[in-house]
Structure formats: C-alpha cells, structure tokens
Design a protein that fits this description.
This protein is mostly helical. The chain has 14 helices and 6 strands.
C-alpha cells in the first residue's frame, strides 16, 4: 500500500483551461460520419494537391515522451461555454494557516492539524481540498470510518479530487472492502492519468487481491511534418496505416469538414479521427485484444484511455458521469 506521505503538496500557481468533453452528447446523430478504409485514405492522398512522402521511421526521429501530471488543487466549475478546470491559489492568510497545518501533521500533532485544515477553509472558501486533508488526519490516526466519511464528503464537493479517491481507496482496503477499493484506486488513476504513484497504488492493490494488472500499451510510432506542399509521413511498419490517417486529418484541406460536415463539435473530430486511424492499423498490428475491445463496444473508452488520456489528461476530468464510469469499467476489464 502506498503511503499518503508521498503526495505532492502543490498549493500554488493558478490557471484556467476551457475544454469540451470529448464524447459530446449534443452532436447531430441523424447522419453518422462514415469511417474511411485505408484504401480510401490512400486514394485521397493520391488525388491530393499535396505531395505525401512516406518513409521509414528512424528512432532518432521520435521526440522524447514527457507525460504531463496534473496538480492536486483543481476544481471543476460550470461556465457559459461549458466547464472550466481551475487550479486554486490560496490567499496569503490561508497559505500561512495551511503551512502550520502541514507542519503539525508532519509532527503527528493530529488534532492540531485537523483544526488548522478546517481554519484554512474558513480563511479561503475556495480550498475545498481541506476536507480531504482532514480525512487524511483521521486515516493517520487509524479512525477509518470517520476518514471514509470525510473522503466521501470531499468527493461530493469536488469529484475530480484524485487524492480523495486515492485515500478513500486506501481506507476501503484497510476496512477490507476490496471491490470499493478497486473502484476508487481506478478513479484516482483516471483523474490523473500520468501520475506514476497513483498508478502504482492501483497496480499494487490489484496484485494484493489476486487480480494482477495487465500491462500493455497502444503507442503509435510515427512523425508528421509539412514543408510547403510536401507532407512527410515517417512511421514504423506496424504504424503506417495509423500515420497516414493522422496525416490526412492534420494536413489535407477540407478533409474534416467533408467527413463530418461543417459545424461539427471538436470532440467528434477527435474521436472520429482516432477511430479511423485505429481501423487503418488493425491489419498491421493485428491486436487480438483490440479486436475484442471493439467487438465489446469499448472503442470510445479505448480511445479516451489509451490515446487521448496520456496526451491530454485533463480531458478525462470533464467526462459526464456515466462515460467516466464506463472508463472505470474499461480499465478494470482490459488492464
């Protein structure tokens, strides 16, 4: 079991990012977009005014992978244009109180820490994570039922608090409620897709309950670039089909509009693009698991978790409740 003490205490920096959930339910479904086959994609490239130059990928062509880890003070707020992810910056007064609370917690002066975490929220009402930290105090004291209540309260206030889910999962494990622990370890992982320790906590728990994590990745190997009317497509042999679809979506004039119709949601563009690309690489990679995922009806979840999540982890925080729970089911079923 992973110690709570490893969590990053990031209470600084403010940013706001406006996003639309990738699986929008507001799109017009009267004319579902057609998925183009690899042969059709090749014909589009052949007829294009652009020159597509296809070559083998050299390992030196691939840029380093730098997955982005989210901070732990974000809250989700509704706006006129959709939803906003906001990372809260504490007032000077609240920051001072929080610092004293953290010092008390590190000295195991738990009742003082509990009270100070509460005073932090009184000094700055935006700091909803105070309830999570109070639950952490009760967990450290071995008061697991009270800790559970506080973590559930914190999740009700701010569902995207991955620490609250993570610590609640630890609590369920202590209370020997493994199924609930599994769900919340998975949620914590999804709410910060690239957080190494949150993922390790999930995989360690899965090993403890006799359901080891199934490790596999879907990591396309390709690089695209354009110079004037020349488009360079470099890919390893297994990923050539995937790469040519991505090239057409990125560079071919009017392709997205002609495929989806004008005025389509940006979310639909992303998911449809990935479906076409996955279809084009099926024969080259011949993943039996991927074929089963598609057959089982989890292709949207596959795209969200395996492709979009690592690059844009904040997108998973904006999913509607039922879609998010389908993603939990996907991870549990295929990993």
């Amino acid at each position: 079991m992973m110690s709570h003490g490893i969590r990053a205490r990031l209470w600084a920096a403010t940013f706001t990012v406006l996003l639309t959930p990738f699986l929008s339910t507001g799109q017009d479904k009267s004319r579902p977009p057609t998925l183009h086959s690899p042969d059709q994609i090749l014909k589009i490239m052949e007829a294009s005014k652009l020159s597509y130059i296809i070559a083998a990928l050299d390992s030196t062509d691939v840029p380093p992978d730098t997955p982005r880890v989210l901070g732990n003070t974000m809250v989700l707020r509704k706006t006129d244009g959709g939803y906003s992810l906001v990372q809260v910056t504490l007032s000077d007064e609240a920051s001072s109180i929080l610092s004293k609370a953290e010092d008390a917690f590190s000295r195991k002066e738990f009742e003082q820490a509990f009270a100070l975490y509460g005073k932090t929220r009184e000094a700055d009402s935006t700091f909803v994570q105070s309830t999570t930290l109070q639950g952490d105090v009760r967990y450290a004291q071995g008061q697991y039922e009270e800790a559970k209540t506080l973590f559930l309260e914190s999740i009700a206030q701010n569902f995207i608090d991955y620490d609250a889910h993570w610590f609640l999962a630890d609590t369920y494990a202590r209370l020997v409620i493994p199924d609930s622990a599994t769900i919340h370890y998975t949620m914590a992982h999804l709410l910060n897709r690239n957080h190494q320790h949150a993922r390790e906590a999930l995989t360690a728990h899965r090993l403890d309950i006799g359901r080891p994590w199934k490790e596999w990745t879907f990591k396309p190997s390709y690089v695209l670039s354009r110079s004037g009317d020349r488009v360079s497509v470099k890919a390893s042999s297994d990923w050539l089909g995937y790469a040519i679809v991505k090239a057409v979506w990125e560079f071919e004039p009017g392709y997205a509009d002609s495929t989806l119709g004008k005025g389509y949601p940006a979310s639909l563009s992303n998911t449809h693009e990935e479906k076409e690309a996955v279809l084009a690489c099926m024969s080259g990679n011949n993943h039996e698991l991927l074929e089963r995922i598609i057959s089982d009806g989890f292709v949207d979840e596959f795209i969200l978790y395996e492709i979009i999540g690592p690059k844009a982890p904040e997108a998973l925080l904006l999913l509607a409740g039922p879609t998010f729970m389908r993603l939990v089911e996907y991870v549990d079923k295929y990993h």
